[in-house]
Amino acid sequence: MIEYTIPPFLIFFFGAALIPALGKGRVRNIFLVALAVLGIVSVVILKPQTGWKLPILPGVELILLQVDRLSLIMGYIFALAGGGAIVYALSTVKEAGQYVCALLYMGSALGAVFAGDFFTLYIFWEIMAFSSLGLIWYEGSRRARDAGMRYILFHLFGGAALLAGIIVHYVNTNAIVLGPVGPGVGYFLLLLGIGVNAAFIPLHTWLPDSYPKATIAGTIFLSIFTTKTGIYVLARTFSGVEAVAYIGGVMCLYGVIFAILQNDVRKLLSYHIVSQLGYMVAGVGMAAGLEIEMGINGAIAHLFNNLLFKTTLFMCMGAVIYATGKNNLTELGGLAKKMPVTMITCVIAALSISGVVGFNGYVSKGMVIHTAQVEGLTLLTIALTLGSVGTLISFLKLTYFAFFSKNEEIEAKEAPLPMLVPMCATAFLCVAIGVYPKLLYALLPYQEAALHYHAYEAGHTFGVIELLLMTVFLFFMLGFFAPHDKITYDVDYLYRKAGRRFIWFCEKPLVSFALAVERAVLRIAGYFVRFGTLEEAESQAVEEPVVSVSIGTAVLLVLLFFALYLIVMLTHGWLMSP
Amino acid sequence: MDKKVLRVLLILIVCVVLVVSAVSVFILHSEHLTGVLYGAVGVGLFMLLAKILTMIQKEGKQDD
Fold first, then answer.
1. Does B22 touch chain A (CB under 8 A)?
2. pTM of the full predicted structure?
3. Rounded CA gap, A356 and A377, in Å?
4. I need a surface site. Which of A7, A90, A334, B11 has the fewest CB within 10 A?
5. Does residue A304 sit in helix, strand or coil?
6. Whether the Cβ atoms of residue A234 and residue A281 lie closer than 8 Å to each other
């Protein structure tokens, strides 16, 4: 039998290149569906321990494809959720450019999870940042444009930190293979770079700022790839770091409290990405010693499940916005009878994310909390458990006020079929994995350890049921969490204030200072000319044409000089540690 | 039944459940009913945090 080991990113990059030539009709739609299927097949046929290497310098080779169980499960869920998002987009996306961005984004995310070395990872990391920016800007409004600018600034900062960390790591170890990093400056730079994509608090603000402003289909793609790639790289490089586990606990609570306060449905879901990432980050951080297998399994299982229920939720809310043109809970309501399929899938996904018994979120959330209990991390256990309460509150709020509360004025009809099919498929998988968790266990990086975990242990199950019932009861009895029009400041308020102050500083005092220095220098030069003997030269100098170089050119020249300097240093081996 | 009476009854039931749970967990050192306490503490915590955060809320649209 012939074994094909084509890196899946090539399929999507090739597809992206062909899209502009296919027009806007049925041919393009058929091609996109075929591409989604081909993408899934290209991942499914990959075998562990296979790879593709590309030598670039003597002794240095980029590993474009490295397959093991961890990268494979990421590939499965990316191909599956991304394929669903492509089908979903058929109803709402008309522009070829948006498909090009989505396919490049999906391809680069697959490239990143199958990358075997840091440099390959960095290349795909940056392609992801720029291609995803297109999905925000295609929305076309000024809000989207501004949010896109803030998004790319954050990701350029994260990318720069990642690259600097990679270079320092390479200089210290002479190794570029993707793996654990030793302590030092490179360690913190890498954590910072990965932390931007994994939405560590307070580096998370780009996420709830930009995702709700992207196009309807764009938000689905965005919710799938960037943050999950961050978690994957974190699992590769920082597993077992206890501080990381506590960062996860903070993310879990921080995200959920801000989600509860939101009125915009996509902003609520965006804050929930931060909160759910908290469980994954905590799982990765706890993967140390005897619990390394359980921690990684919990994190990756929750990542897998999260992609199923979160994609479903974004698809459902996209369908609601598509059908009603409204995105605030205060304007919605009464959609249960008008959009029954959307309502059912949304309720299934909401039950899943809330960790209700019988759904997939219950299984993976239980794995992470169980690891915290076994490791004796009481504070973290409490934080993660309370996170479940907050999640249930915000999804009671979302589903009740979007579908069941009274609103007789609202007009809507059920979403088109291409939107419903992927929603139903992912919702079905949420139930299937919840009822029969071994479907998921078989895919996890440490299969044996997963099989030893009993999701439906009586004590745990009853504890979760008690927690959920109490929360539901208090939610409806207190009636405290109704949506309202007010907005809540996140830490990005401070960033924006600081940004405006910085621009003011550059435009006013700094420019004034530069002008003063220039005047002083000219005055000093004038004294030299006056007291010097070269009066002729003075007049000659004035007549000579002045060669002016723009700031951009000057910066480019300086950067080129440094690049040349680094290349010379590298080829002579002066950058290596002795 | 009057809505006010119903509300008072519900609050009473919740209080009884919470007291029973607290006795079970803290005095009898049983792990049963911990979920009830987590649920009540969680809702209370998020109400408190939401109340604190509403102090720095304003009318209008974010980001602009």
1. no
2. 0.87
3. 23
4. B11
5. helix
6. yes
Looking up tokens 């990642």 gives A162
How far is C-alpha A29 from the geometric centre of its chain's CA atoms?
27
Instruction: Find the closest chain B residue to A480 by CA distance.
Output: B47
- Interface membership of B43 toward A (CB under 8 Å): yes
| Cβ distance of B42 and A261 shorter than 8 Å | no
Please name the member of B14, B17, B53 whose beta carbon is closest to the beta carbon of A488.
B53
Helical spans, DSSP H, in A325-446: 340-353, 360-374, 378-399, 417-435, 438-441
Nearest chain A residue (CA) to B34: A463
Tens-of-pLDDT digits for all 578 residues of chain A? 445 578 899 999 999 999 999 988 899 999 999 999 999 999 999 988 888 888 887 777 889 999 999 999 999 999 999 999 999 999 899 999 999 999 999 999 999 999 999 999 999 999 999 999 999 999 999 999 999 999 999 999 999 999 999 999 999 998 889 999 888 899 999 999 999 999 999 999 999 999 999 999 999 999 999 999 999 999 999 999 999 999 999 999 999 999 999 999 999 999 999 999 999 999 999 998 777 889 999 999 999 999 999 999 999 999 999 999 999 999 999 999 999 999 999 999 999 999 999 999 999 999 999 999 999 999 999 999 999 999 999 999 999 999 999 988 888 999 999 999 999 999 999 999 999 999 999 999 998 888 889 999 998 999 999 999 999 988 988 888 888 888 788 888 888 889 889 889 988 899 999 999 999 999 988 888 777 655 555 555 555 555 565 666 776 777 778 778 777 776 666 555 44
Q: Is A467 within 8 Å of B35 when comparing Cβ atoms?
A: yes
Q: With an 8 Å Cβ cutoff, is A485 touching chain B?
A: yes
**CB contact, 8 Å: B56 with chain A?**
yes
* Yes or no, beta carbons of B43 and A267 under 8 Å apart: no
Interface predicted TM-score of the whole assembly (ipTM), two decimals? 0.84
Measured CA to CA in angstroms, residue A159 lies from A133, A280, A510 at distances of 14, 21, 28
CB distance B34–A465 less than 8 Å?
no
The size of chain B, in residues, is 64
Counted across chains A and B, CB pairs separated by less than 8 A come out at 105
Residue A552 CA to residue A116 CA, distance in Å, equals 36
Q: Per-domain residue ranges for chain A?
A: 1-151+195-233, 240-486, 491-541, 549-578
Residues of A in contact with B41 (CB under 8 A): 386, 389
